[in-house]
Amino acid sequence: MKIAIVGAEGQLGQDVLRAFAEDGHEVCALFHPDIEITDQESAFRTLGELAPDLVVNTAAMHHVETCEREPDRAFAVNAVGPRNLALAARQQGAVLMHVSTDYVFDGSRTAPYFESDAPRPLNVYGITKLAGEYFVRCTTEKHFVVRTSGLFGKHPCRGKGGLNFIELMLKLARERGEVRVVDDEVLSPTSTEELARQMVVLARTQSWGLYHATAEGSCSWYEFAREIFAATDTSVQLKVASPGEFPAKVPRPKYSVLENRTLKLLGLNTFRPWQDGLHEYLGVTHMCAAGQEK
Prior knowledge:
The chain is an alpha/beta fold. The chain has helices at residues 11-22, 40-50, 64-69, 71-92, 124-139, 165-176, 192-203, 221-231, 261-265, 274-293; strands at 2-6, 26-30, 54-57, 95-101, 143-148, 151-152, 178-181, 186-187, 190-191, 209-212, 219-220, 237-240.
C-alpha cells in the first residue's frame, strides 16, 4: 500500500512511519510545511497529488492548557482538520486512520471504558478531539478511529515541551533527589512503538470503525514513576503528592483506562502489559545512552 503519514515529525508519527515502512509499504511522510490540515484546499491538493491508499493522521494540538486558552485554534486542528482529511480521503477512495484520545471520557467510573460507552469530555482538548472523531466517522465510511492513552516514545513531543513523563521523572530525580507525584489519576501508559505496530495490524483489515488501543493494565502516575525508578535502579525518594499540591489548571479525567474490546473481539489485539512497553523503551534509550557515556 501507499501510505501518507500526517504529522510524521511527531512523537507518534515517527514510529508510525517506521512501522509501516518495515512492513513493506510505500510511505510518504507529511510534515507541517507539506500539508495544512486546517485548510481544506491544502488537504485536497496534497492528498490528490500523492493518491495514497491509506492516510494516517497523527497530527493534533494536544497541549491541554493551550487548547483551553485557544479553543478556536484547537477546534480547527483537532476537529476541522480531521474533517478535511476525511473529505480528501473519501474523494481519493483512500482509508483514513485517525488517532484520538482517552480524554473524550470524564473519568467518573472505576472500570475500563469500552468503545460503546458514552463520551463526556471535561476540557477543550477532549471536546475538540471528540468532534474530530465524529467528523471522521460521519464523513467517510472507510475509517479507523483509534483512541489511545498516556503515550511515551523515544522521539520528543514538541507540543509538550520535548520531555515525556519517563524522561521528566528521571531528570527530576537527578536534579532534586526527591520526586512527588499524584496518585489519584489512573491511566494505561502506552508505548508509541507498540501503538504503531498495532496500527499496522489494524490497517491490514477492512474492519472500519472505532477502536481503543492501549497497553494492557493500568496504574496511577505515582505507580508509573515507581516502576520507572525501579527499572532504572534510580536512587530517589518518591512520595505521593498531597491533595491539591499540584492544582490542575484544566479539569482532567481521574480515570481514563480504555479496554481494547473491539481489537480483542476481532482477534487483533497485540498489546502487552504496560510494564513491558516501559522496559522495552528503557532498554533501547537508556542502554544506548549508557554506551555513549563510556
